[in-house]
Amino acid sequence: MNVNRREFIQITGAAAAGIAVSGLGFDLGPVRAHAQMLKTRYAKETTTICPYCAVGCGAIVHTSQKGDGRVINIEGDPDHVINRGSLCSKGASLSQLVENSRRVTEPLYRAPGASDWKPVSWDWALSEIAKRVQVTRDANFDKTNAKGEMVNRTTAIASVGSAALDNEECWVYQALLRSLGLVYIEHQARI
Amino acid sequence: MTKAFFIDTTVCTGCRGCQVACKQWHDLPAEETENRGSYQNPSDLSAMTYKLVRMREEEIDGKLRWLFFPDQCRHCLDAPCKGTAMYEEAIYQEPATGAILYTMATRELNAQEIIDSCPYNIPRKGPDGVLAKCDMCIDRVINGQLPACVKTCPTGAMNFGDREEMLQLADRRLGEARKKFPKASLLDPDEVSVIYLVAYDRSHYEVAARARTPEGLTRQAALRKMISPLTRSVAHIG
Amino acid sequence: MTNHWIDIKNSDCILIMGSNAAENHPVSFKYVTEAQKKGAALISVDPRFTRTSSKADIYAPLRSGTDIAFLGGMIKYILDSGQFNKEYVAAYTNAPFLVNEGFGFKDGVFSGFQETPKGPALGKYDKKSWAFQMDEKGVPKMDRSLEDPHCVFQLLKKHFSRYDTDTVSQVTGTPKASLEEIYRTYAATGATGKAGTIMYAMGWTQHTHGTQNIRTMAIIQLLLGNMGVAGGGVNALRGESNVQGSTDHCLLWHIWPGYLATPSTKWPKLADYLQRRAKSNDPLSANWWQNEPKYMVSTLKSFFGDAATAENDFGYDWVPKVDAGTAYSWLDIFDAMYDGKIKGFFSWGQNPACSGSNAGKNREAMKNLDWMVNVNLFDNETGSFWKGPGMKPWEIQTEVFFLPAAVSVEKEGSITNSGRWMQWRYQGPKPLGNCRPDGDMILELGDRIKALYEKEGGVHPEPIIHLKWDYTTGGAYDPHKVAKEINGYFLRDVTVKGKTYKKGTLVPSFAFLQADGSTSSGNWLYCNSYTEKGNMAARRSQQDASNGIGIYPEFAWCWPVNRRIIYNRASVDLKGQPWDKDDWVIRWNGSKWEGDVPDGGWPPLESLTNPNPKSKYPFIMHVHGHGQIFGPGRSDGPFPEHYEPLECPVEKNLLNPRMVSPTAAVYSGKADMFATCDPRFPYVGTTYRVSEHWQTGLMTRYQPWLLELQPQVFVEMSEELAQLKGVSNGERVKVSSARGSLEATAIVTKRFKPFRIEGSVVHQVGLPWHFGWRWPASGTEKSANLLTPSAGDPNTRIPETKAFMVNVAKL
After folding, report:
1. Residue range of the domain that includes A57
2. Does B59 touch chain C (CB under 8 A)?
3. 3-state DSSP call for residue C765?
4. Does residue A23 lie within any of the structural domains?
5. β-bridge partners, C716
6. What is the predicted pLDDT for the residue at A34?
7. What is the pLDDT of residue C117?
8. Residue C445 near chain A (CB below 8 Å)
9. What is the pLDDT of residue B206?
10. How confident is the model over A80-104, as a mean pLDDT?
11. β-pairing verdict for A182-186 and A150-160
12. For residue C425, what are the β-bridge partners?
């Protein structure tokens, strides 16, 4: 593998240990000794593409290799030919999207008439959804239309989404929906 | 060779990537803000906000201009705050970069005195009494990386490098900018390590850029009388 | 984008209109700035002075919804001043084509118009009179001198003769001097070797005449010879990281992967479908779509694998058909849902309770659902619609399942940017908590549905049971397996041009796909993206083209077949030599093309009178191979025409006697209220985005760092309007339309100025649509789409969220 600019900087950067800079004030010792350690020093590096607008900027994700294995930093990828390391305010905030205490981390279910959500298992949620799909589809499946032409579809189920999916996910999703006979298939590109 | 920033406000789009990248790298919390009839937020620098893009709408020569000014510590060559503190464990100038660094020991200083000493009204006192401001991302710089705000800037408004290189870039960009903006100038290039290029008279920019005392005399000029600024040998325009 | 992001740096003049690139695509300004530093002019046209305008050399305001008038004036200027690129126009566009003598435009409609008694479309066209005149061989008759009164060029001239700057200025509110300065500056790119580009986005699409906004600009680009060249093109700045890819893979009712037509009752059998494309009798027209049968059959093979056979028409009968002439679009979905006709609903990575036009109608509609599946990172206004403002949860019987998704950095796969670059992403951390990648959810849901039908049978089970669904490795979703399926395989040993490709190998490119079932390809447009040479989207080469135009041919992968600039055969003259000698894209070296992947390897035309018979015209996706100045395929006219938005502030259209696009889609249920020229709603309203948030805010409102920058919904207005309403800066106000209202903070700004329209003062206000009641939790409405109308473009049915009428009142 060729050593690119980013890796070069990393390789040639200070190797000595020190105390990482925290938000408010810091220790002068390592600064004086030029021995400050980057908070990303021992992190796993992966490249990604920003999930916001469609410029397609490259970013580097630093994931801690110890403890909880979570993201500690995300910044622009200097070897990405479009953004050359830059990111706007949204891209620069990406780490806070991932590491966000308000993310929902369990499937939830809201029963008819209920006033709140309750957590459920994946197994239960997916099985119940599959059953709903079958019941609604089979009760509302049109083999022919009003003119008697073969249509083999259901117009009782609709899907919207999503430009937030990866290409491969989009493809399997549309294949699944079309195999079920959906024609109401739309997403962000329409609005 | 010390380091310098060159901030070309003529190409700043006010995207504020720098403002967020600064918080991201420093793990600084967000402030609770409200819209006060402007895009600029927070309203001012704070112990949680080292970098702030100030925004101002001005009609200049009959044309509307929306001026963006990414404000931050200038890392003065001869910093009044450091001179005021006279306490290296609290306010330290890192010799290789010229970065002016505040430590936890700033708690022990008279905060108001330090803040008042700044020609650009930059330092802010945190709830724990520690003074805070831009640290030039000294950890990154020592490790051969660009400050977070510079790296994230899409348009080349934020630049960082060896002082001479930045001065040359500033001079070149000033020359180019003057074709579009005849009144463009560099702000205090002889005194600071964060050199701004502005398109119009500095009076059009936010209060921080023009750094005036209540008396009308620029704080800069007032301070210049008290401190002896370094002069540099490189000729430059403006 | 026909071009791509880096290519913007090659432009001599950049028009940003219908988009706000500095705010919504901030990194694009890396290249806008670079172009400006090299001397390019930046023009910003927007109802409001934006961060884009702040960097522009020329800024001009225009009233929302009047872009066709503005650009129509530019067409007239270009034709009158003779600044069009005559050589290019005569050779590469359909300007020389002769149109049927029956074609005309009168009383605000084109020939063939019929009102339709039943909506949503107001009317429709019989397009017979819009056809081209054909010679005895069935090839369009042409007058390359552009002088025949029935040729497209002369018809264009006549059509836009009404668009003089005085009239345009009256309609748009743009000062006449600004119009002239912009027309002059942009028309200068008609010179040989100069390139002008357009950066547009939803500011052009979200209108009842959105398609024609873009058509108008496309005509300008063709007239100036700006298509196919570096620094040119028609560039839609797409708004979401993979909205290009999700469109290419066709999560849309009207198209199948790779822009194949959705099977319809119009083509009841596969044979009908495979014969549906128009033929060209011109040997110089590549008419690329004649290859559609290979792509469709290969797609069906990817869907159904071995179960798709020639005998069963590759499963064509199994797949759903739409009714010919009926739309199943976003607006139609919520209309049907509102009427109780939809029972089950997937909202997968989307938030229609805030993103949809007339959002209040959408929320009411959701009450009629039996069940909803909401997949997202955070709870949103859609999943929790039943407890939103004004809702009574105990009365709402909808079951809702919320499935928590992994963030992009927690999974692996590819996305396609606006420049058509497919780029691979890798997994950093594992999904948080019990979150799962969408791919795992989709596969597992499919498994369970398949198991139900395999066990119990059910109605029409064949497509479900036979759906090829082998995309896991070690029990988990494997994006590489899907990426390979999308690219496609040889399904048996196939010999193409003397070379044999073994069964099971990946197809090198779509030129190898077959219509006999011997190849699969989930999406022909992506065939070449994942081949025996590896995953092309993961490439990282820093090597640029020899002349440094920013193509980076081995960085990532670009559809089609890694062609970075589409229609690049129009970037050269008839001899194959580039119009622009420095920023050239391709050139003919006497035996082959150099540079970018050309639009086909055929040799240059050499001459129009005596063309090389082995050559092809450059616009290969069009039946007749020419760029379409005349666009007879559109449902609202072959030429653009200015019509007012459905809701507008004027009582008269100064350009023709019709107010609204005669074929606009306008819904007419109980929740579809409209108010035009209504004193209750006297101000033009528009919606937009800001740099610091994104879409309905689901992926930005939850980040404290972004909320700090833009904490709440606001409405921007001029100092003049604020004074009129007694509103001061920062004050809270109520904004209302015929459909709904919300409270917002007033930003009183010099950046909005009142318009002078037809002698009267017209005020406009604007709001971002990033906010909602769910978070930050305030319990009050914050979504700007409560105001917007359920009416849409005749071709696309994209809703008209960029121009509508509102009122503003102090609280």
Report:
1. 44-98
2. yes
3. strand
4. no
5. C747, C766
6. 80
7. 84
8. yes
9. 61
10. 98
11. parallel
12. C413
C379-434 residue pLDDT tens: 999 999 999 999 999 999 999 999 999 999 999 999 999 999 999 999 999 999 99
* Residue B45 Ramachandran class (φ > 0 left, ψ -120 to 50 alpha, else beta): beta
Mean pLDDT of B169-183: 97
A175 and A133 housed in the same domain: yes
Helix, strand, coil distribution of chain C in percent, nearest 5 = 30, 20, 55
The string of DSSP codes covering C561-618 is TT-SSTTGGGGB-TTS-BSSSSS-SEEE-SSSEEES--SS-PPP---SSS--TT---S
Return d(Cα C259, Cα C10) in angstroms, integer.
Answer: 29
Mark the ranges of chain C whose per-residue pLDDT is less than 70. none
Q: Assess whether A83 and A128 both reside in one domain.
A: no
Q: Does B21 touch chain A (CB under 8 A)?
A: yes
Biggest CA-to-CA distance, chain B? 51
A142 and A88 in one domain? Answer: no
Dihedral (Cα; C741, C742, C745, C746), 10-degree rounding: -10
d(CA C376, CA B153): 30
Distance CA C442, CA C162 (A): 54
Asked if residue A87 and residue A146 are part of one domain, the reply reads no
Residue A171 maps to a domain: yes
From the list C23, C55, C705, which residue is nearest B30 (CB)?
C705
Q: Are residues A94 and A125 in the same domain?
A: no
> What is the rounded distance in angstroms from the CA atom of residue B185 to the CA atom of residue B175?
9
pLDDT at A66: 86
Domain with residue A86: its CATH number is 3.30.200.210
pLDDT at C357: 97
- The string of pLDDT tens digits covering residues B101-157 is 999 999 999 999 999 999 999 999 999 999 999 999 999 999 999 999 999 999 999
pLDDT tens digit string along A44-88?
999 999 999 999 999 999 999 988 999 999 999 999 999 999 999
Nearest to C711 among B35, B37, B57 (CB): B35
- Residue A26, pLDDT above cutoff 60: yes
Yes or no: say if C402 and A116 are a contact pair by the CB < 8 Å rule.
no
Instruction: Work out the minimum CA distance from C30 to partner chain B, whole angstroms.
Output: 4
Q: Is the pTM of this model over 0.90?
A: yes
Please report residues of C whose CB lies closer than 8 A to that of A92.
705
Q: How much is the pLDDT for A25?
A: 55
In a domain, A11, yes or no: no
Q: Are A153 and A86 part of one and the same domain?
A: no
A159 within some domain: yes
Asked if A127 and A88 sit in the same domain, the reply is: no
Distance CA C331, CA C785 (A): 13
How far, CA to CA in Å, does A191 sit from each of A174, C203, C351, C525, C799?
18, 11, 11, 23, 6
The identity of residue A22, as a single letter, is S
Q: Concatenated DSSP letters for C152-184? A: HHHHHHHHGGG--HHHHHHHH---HHHHHHHHH
Residue B112 C-alpha, separation from nearest chain C C-alpha, in angstroms: 26
Those residues whose C-beta lies under 8 Å from the C-beta of residue B96, and which sit 6 or more positions away, are A34, B2, B142
Tell which of A98, A132, A165 closes a domain. A98
| Domain count across chain A | 2
State the pLDDT at residue C61.
Answer: 98
CB of B167 closer than 8 Å to CB of B189: yes
Under 8 Å between Cβ of C187 and C4: no
State how far residue A51 is from chain B, nearest Cα, in angstroms: 15
Whole-angstrom Cα Rg for chain A = 25
Domains of chain B and CATH, by start: 3-75+147-202 (3.30.70.20), 80-136+212-231 (3.30.70.20)
Instruction: Give the pLDDT of residue B209.
Output: 52
- Amino acid occupying residue C574: L
Residues A77 and A112 in one domain: no
